[in-house]
Amino acid sequence: xxxxxxxxxxxxxxxxxxxxxxxxxxxxxxxxxxxxxxxxxxxxxxxxxxxxxxxxxxxxxxxxxxxxxxxxxxxxxxxxxxxxxxxxxxxxxxxxxxxxxxxxxxxxxxxxxxxxxxxxxxxxxxxxxxxxxxxxxxxxxxxxxxxxxxxxxxxxxxxxxxxxxxxxxxxxxxxxxxxxxxxxxxxxxxxxxxxxxxxxxxxxxxxxxxxxxxxxxxxxxxxxxxxxxxxxxxxxxxxxxxxxxxxxxxxxxxxxxxxxxxxxxxxxxxxxxxxxxxxxxxxxxxxxxxxxxxxxxxxxx
Length: 301
Hints:
By secondary structure, the chain is α+β, with helices and mostly antiparallel strands. It has helices spanning 2-16, 21-28, 32-44, 74-80, 86-92, 95-108, 111-121, 141-150, 218-231, 280-289; strands at 18-19, 49-52, 58-61, 152-159, 165-178, 181-188, 191-196, 200-209, 236-242, 258-262, 271-277, 294-300. Helix 2 (21-28) crosses helix 3 (32-44).
């Protein structure tokens, strides 16, 4: 609804001070033309919105203007009380702080809403751990957090996938948790790089301060980086014929295999299937695991 969108614009400008038309359109999932019409509507309603032109321009509210339209809707309230990942909070050392913040937020609500918030806590739980936990060395995580907040450069020793260790000085910009694996996003020699925190063998915060890029958006960068990584993943495809007895179990083996195509059963009832794996070793282990219930046809990259 337009009324909800206008309120959202007010709250966004209040929290971000200044936003471009493009940024507002992206956040609210509408066209830039719609944002311009909404701004005209806000101005006509007496809301003091100003447009600043130029390279660093954008929309903003006049100084000291604050809206009182901050009442929480039912679904908004529920999102605040979703159970977080306690594993990730523990990694960051925020478990105690989060619990105290939750109690303060709960105490600030009217009595009529407290029971709803507590009920939400008991209905949804988020667990980011795997079934088979693997211990990762995260001793550098605390130092990385401090350097990110203080915008100080880090001198670190990093172990590559081939086990070679290099020493470098980087500008830490943010931390990202992919599942339970932590990554440091940092500028290194003028380029943005992703470093797996468990491979950082030592990290020392230096006294040198760096200037954080104003246009850097951690979530946007990570999504783009992730898409590029997935697109460049190696693919190893296998053509096989599968016994009808094991066909339903192809994707329930505990090993990753993507079924790309399934053909019609041949004369003896076996089913032609094209499978995709990340590596040749994964394909070999998967096919051999079914013994004589899979017949290999063609291997190719």
